[in-house]
Amino acid sequence: MKFKCIDECSQCCVEREYYPNKEFGKIGVLILPEEKHRIEEIGKKLAIKVNILPRIGVSKSRNSKPKVLAYQMMGIEKNGNTCPFLDTSGDNKSPHGGFPCNIYNDRPLACKTYPLVESNPITLDEKCKFCKEHKTANENLDSEIESLLKIKNEMKTNASVIWRYATNIGEQEDNSYFQNGWIVEEE
Ligand code: SF4
Ligand code: SF4
Predict the structure, then answer these.
(1) pLDDT tens sequence across 127-166
(2) Which of 52, 59, 70, 169 could be a cystine partner for 80, CB 3.0 to 4.6 Å?
(3) Angle, vertex CA 73, rays to CA 123 and CA 80, nearest 5
(4) Are 169 and 178 in contact (CB under 8 A)?
(5) Which residue puts its alpha carbon closest to atom 1 of ligand 2?
(6) Whole domain around residue 96: which residue ranges?
(7) Minimum-distance ligand to the CA of 31?
(8) Is 85 in the pocket of ligand 2 (CB under 6 A)?
């Protein structure tokens, strides 16, 4: 089965999830440290406000400040949804008829990877509409595989402590669950 976006779908640029749970708030699009400045500069040029928070940090011990291994670009809605670069004006369409990305050629590596979550065996994100309809695909995923391997390579670490950043962003009714800032995930 060849992977191809479902007609008119923009779900992965709109919906953001709680990960790993509500305590951490909703996550944004993963941004590698080397991508952060570039994405912020594109935002400035397009006069689009971009909010990039830390996502994963590493340190030698609990007592040392985490070094950021990955950031995340938050959605523009109060509940954390909708990427700032998604053109929701309705004036333009993506090639498959969804809302287009304003920075498609310069989009983050994580966007180039989606919906692939594993390359061996090929595993697609269950939330992707294509995956819901077809379960999996084995063609037309070469660039996604390449991007995923690059991200995995960049995220390799021997650090003793892994931290995850709680964004404090999500649905209003879930407010009481949210933490804010770095939380130790593994040591
Ligand atoms: S990758 Fe999946 S969720 Fe995203 S637009 Fe394509 S079909 Fe929709
Ligand atoms: S940068 Fe573009 S592709 Fe990535 S989530 Fe935003 S709108 Fe979608």
Answers:
(1) 999 999 999 999 999 999 999 999 999 999 999 999 999 9
(2) 169
(3) 90
(4) yes
(5) 107
(6) 11-186
(7) 2
(8) yes
